[in-house]
Amino acid sequence: MTAATADLLPMSSPDPTGVRDDLLRFTTAGSVDDGKSTLIGRLLYDSKGVYEDQLVSIQRSGINRSDGPIDLSLLTDGLRAEREQGITIDVAYRYFSTPRRKFIIADTPGHEQYTRNMVTGASNAHAAVILIDASRGVLTQSRRHTCIAALLGIQDVVAAVNKMDLVEYREDVFAAIAKEFMELAGHLGIANVYAIPVSALRGDNIVQASMRMPWFDGSTLLEYLENVPVRSVEHTRPLRFPVQYVIRTDSRFRGFAGRVASGVLHRGAAITALPSGAKSRVKSIVTFDGELEQARPGSSVTVTLEDEIDVGRGDLLAADAGLPQTSTSLAAKLVWLHSDPCQHENFYLLKHANRIVRARVSRILHRVDVNTLRHLPASTPQMNDITAVHIETTLPLFFDPYAQDRIMGSFILIDPMTNATVAAGMIEGKVESAHTSPAAQGRTRLEERMSRNGHPPAALWIVNRQPLATRIERQVFEKGWQVQLVSNAEFRNAELNPVVTMLQRTGMIAIFSPATDDPDLRNAITAIYGEQ
Amino acid sequence: MDGLLWQQSLGIALAAVIHMGARTQETRARMRTNHLRELEAESIFILREAAAEFSKPVMLYSIGKDSSVMLRLAQKAFFPGKIPFPLLHIDTSYKFPEMIEFRDWYAKKLGAELIVHTNRKALSDGANPYDLGTQKCCGLLKTRALLDALTEGSFDAAFGGARRDEEKSRAKERVYSFRDSQGQWDPKNQRPELWSLYNGRHNKGESIRVFPLSNWTELDVWLYIAEESIPIVPLYFAKEREAVQRGNSILLMQQGVHLLPHERTQKIMCRMRSLGCVPCSGAIRSEADTVPKIIDEMIGFRRSERENRVIDHDEEGSMEIKKREGYF
Ligand SMILES: Nc1nc2c(ncn2[C@@H]2O[C@H](COP(=O)(O)OP(=O)(O)O)[C@@H](O)[C@H]2O)c(=O)[nH]1
Q1: pLDDT in tens, A93-124
Q2: Minimal Cα distance from A304: which residue of B?
Q3: How far is ligand 1, taken at its centre, from the CA of residue A66, in Å?
Q4: Residues pairing with A325 in the sheet
C-alpha cells in the first residue's frame, strides 16, 4: 500500500483551566457605509487571513472606493453583486485566526431584512461588534443592532466607533458616543459593554494600537476579540444532554450519542431521563479517542447508563438535582422569518433540542419595537417582527429559559406544508397567567390547577430545620413547581387553618417548618391536605 | 502584532510539538482544549443529526483531504458502531491512479460500504476534458453522474466536504443546503439556519446536501490531519514528478495529458494542493514532504487552494453556476 500516514503531531497544549475558549464566534452589525466591510477586510488582512491571489484579483478589478492603496471592503464583497441579483444572503461567514484564537465572523449584510439576518447571525455568536460611524453618532440602526444582540442573549458587546479619522481623532467625540452607547447597552441588560475608537480605513486600533489616539489606552479590537470570554457559564449549570442518536452494536452496546448543552457530564453522575422520569447513573462516557471521566459543554460524546432504561432521540438526560421545566404551554419571543405571515390557527412543527413536536401560536401578547425593545400593540407576526406569544405544544417540552440556556431555550417553527423555517423562538418560561380553554367556564377547579402546575398539592412537615426547609423550597421552585414555605415566624401569630386551606386549594406544595412538633397542627394540616 | 511575528510564533509552537512525538490515545482524549475540538464536536453533531433525521443518507467521498477528515469525523460520530451510511465516489475515470488505489484500500480498511458511480454512457459517447472543455466535461462526468447516482440510490441526504472558506460564493452557504427534485440549488430559497436547529424536512424526490466541515478552514483541515494521523493520498506530499509547466499551472504527465508542440516534460519537485481529475488539477512547486512541512508552508504561503484548479478559472463565477446545476 502506498498511502502515507501523517506524522503524529498533536497541536496545542492542554489549557490548564480546561475552558474551551480558543474559538470565538462573533457577529458584526452596522448600517450601510459605516465601514463594516472595510473593518472585516482589515481584520482579515492585518491578521494575514487573506490569500495573495485574492489580493491580486482585487487589484486587478481596478475598483477602489477607498483612498488607501487597496480597497479592503472588496475582500468581503462577494455579496454586493449577489444582493443586486436578488439572492438572499442572510449571513456570510468569514474565518481568520491568530495564535491565540480562531475566529468565525457571522457577517450580516442587508438592510430590509435586517432583523431576520442579524437574529440568524447572532444566534450562534458569543460576542457582537457594532459599528458606529463617529461622524454620525448613535443612530436608530445602532440601537436596533444593540437591541437584537441583547434579545439573542449576547453578553459581550463592543462598539467599534469607526471613521475616527473623519473627526480628527477627537477624544470628546468618542467619549460622547461611548457614553451614549454604554447607557443604551446597560439599559438593555447586556452584561459586558465596551467601546473602541477605530479607523478601519487607516487601521487605527483594529490590530495595531493607534499612534493618532494616544488618549485611548484600552484594547485594540483584535485584543478585545482575543480575550473576550467564551462559554464562561454553561459548565456551572445543571447537566443537559439532549440525546441525538442511539448507537447499538452487535456486542450489546447501547450508547446515547449527543452534545452536552450545559453542565458537566461526569462518569457516575445521577441522571434523570425525560420524559420517562427514569433514573440511572452514567456508566461510561465513550469516545473514539478513549473513555472520559467528564465531558464539558459543547462536547460530542456517547453515554452508557448503569440501567436498561428506555431512552431515544429527542429525550433529555438531565442532572437529578436541577431538572428543566416541563410544559405544553410556553411564553416565548418569536422572530418571524418568512414572507408568509403567521397563521395562528395552524399547527407548525416546533424543533427544540433534537426533538420535533406539533405546536400552535395560541396567543399574541404584543409586538416588540426592535429599536427600543418597548411593547407595541399586538398584531399577527409578519416577516422581521419580534412578537411575544404563547405557544401550545401537543407534547410537553423540557426546557430552560433562553436567558439561562441558549440551547435548551431556543426553537424554530417549520411550516409542515412547505417545510420552510418560518420562525425562531426564545422561550421565556411556562405560561403562568390564567389561560382559558374555550370549553372551561366558571371557577377554576383543583384538577385544572393540577394539570397546569404539573403536580398535585402536597404538604411537608419539617420540624426545626429551617435551612433544610429553605433549600427544599428553592429546589422545588427551580423545578418549576408551585411551592410555599411557611416559616417558624409565621406560625406564631397566624390563624393557620384558613391559610392552609387556601394553599391546598391553589394546588401549592406547602412546606411547614415549625420550631417544635405540634401534633394538633400537624393533624389539622393532614386533614386538609389528605394523607399523602 | 505583525505578520512575521505570528508566523514565527506558530513556527516555534509547531517545532515544539513535533518534538513531543507520539502520544497515547488516552492523552489525546483528555486534550480536548483547542479549537479543533470545538470544530470536531460541531461536525459530529451535524453528522449525527443528519443520520438521525434522513431516511437514506450517503457520504460523498472524493478521496481528497477534506473527505478524509469528514470520514474520520463520521467514524468518531458513530463509534463504537459502524458508519451507518455508504460512501459514494463519483469516478470520472480521469482521476489519478493513486487516488483510486487509496480509495479502495481505505474503504476496505474502515469496513465502509463504497459505491462507485461513473457516467458510462457519456464516456462511451466520447466525453473527455480535452475535446469538451472543462465546463461541459464536469457537467457530464461529475454533476450529471452525481445526480444520477443520488436518484438511483434514492438518497435523501448527501454529506459533502465543502468548506465555506474555500471560495467567496460559499461564504453564505448553509450547513443544510436544500436541493429541489432536479438536484438544483435555488439561492433565493434557502432556509435560515439558527442556533444548531437544522431543518431537514423535505418532500419525496427533494434532498439536502449536508456540509459538516462548513466552519473549517484549509489550515484547520491540515492541523487535524496532523493531530489525528489521518491517512491521505501521497500526491499531497512533495516529490520529484514528471510534469509539464503550462502557463501558471504544473500538470503531471499522467492519464493521457498531451504535450503541446513547444512543451517538454521535466522533473519538478511538486505536490498537489487539491485533488481532482488529472488534466484539471495543477500541482504546486513545493518541498513539503510531510504534514508538518505542509502546515509550515501553508502558514507562510497564502494562496487560496482553488487557484490551482483549472476549473474555477474557466469563467468568472463558474463555481456558482456549477453549484446551481447540482455540483457541490
Ligand atoms: N474616512 C474613513 N472612511 C472609511 C472608514 N472605513 C470605511 N470607510 C469608507 O466608507 C465607505 C463604506 O465602507 P464599507 O466598508 O463599504 O461600508 P459597509 O457598507 O458598512 O460595508 C467606503 O468608501 C470606505 O472606504 C474609515 O475608518 N475612515
Answers
A1: 999 888 888 999 999 875 656 888 899 999 99
A2: B80
A3: 7
A4: A399
